[in-house]
Write a structure and sequence with these properties.
mainly alpha, about 150 residues, 6 helices
Length: about 150
């Protein structure tokens, strides 16, 4: 599947705000909520993620069509990385290690901020490194001009 590259960047901006609030308030519950958002994006798909739904319903209709589409796999992998880091932080808060929780939230914030502000997706870059190290036997096709809006999920 392919998606509008502005969707993951929008999601990264919302994620940055949530994680900044976690760092300011020290709220393990808020980090747990963000962990759930990461899990939905990673395991159910970016189009089902709450931030993806907000982008698709309220933001994207007000924008011009994207100049190009991007594969959904790298941003979805980035969501999985975010999930792992946020889950570690959530568990740390739950067992009484708030410093570890804040460090994990800070790492997730740094990655989300890089994507939101500079368009640099750290998780996507890790995905590409893994793909280069372990190449697949099939090559994904690129979207064509006849790609339908239903194929563009976020």
């Amino acid at each position: 599947m392919y998606l509008d590259p502005r969707g993951p960047r929008f999601a990264a901006a919302l994620t940055s705000v949530v994680l900044a609030l976690v760092l300011i308030t020290g709220s393990g519950w808020l980090l747990a909520a963000q962990t759930i958002v990461f899990a939905i994006g990673a395991f159910a798909g970016l189009h089902r993620s709450p931030y993806g739904v907000i982008f698709r319903r309220f933001v994207r209709p007000r924008l011009a069509p994207p100049a190009e589409l991007e594969a959904a796999a790298p941003p979805r992998f980035a969501q999985a990385v975010g999930f792992v880091v946020a889950a570690i932080g959530t568990v740390a808060f739950a067992v009484g290690l708030p410093t570890v929780g804040l460090v994990a939230a800070g790492l997730a914030f740094a990655a989300a901020f890089l994507n939101a502000v500079f368009g640099f997706c750290l998780g996507c870059e890790i995905y590409l490194l893994v793909r280069r190290a372990f190449p697949a036997t099939t090559t994904p096709t690129h979207p064509t001009s006849n790609t339908t809006p239903e194929e563009i999920t976020a």
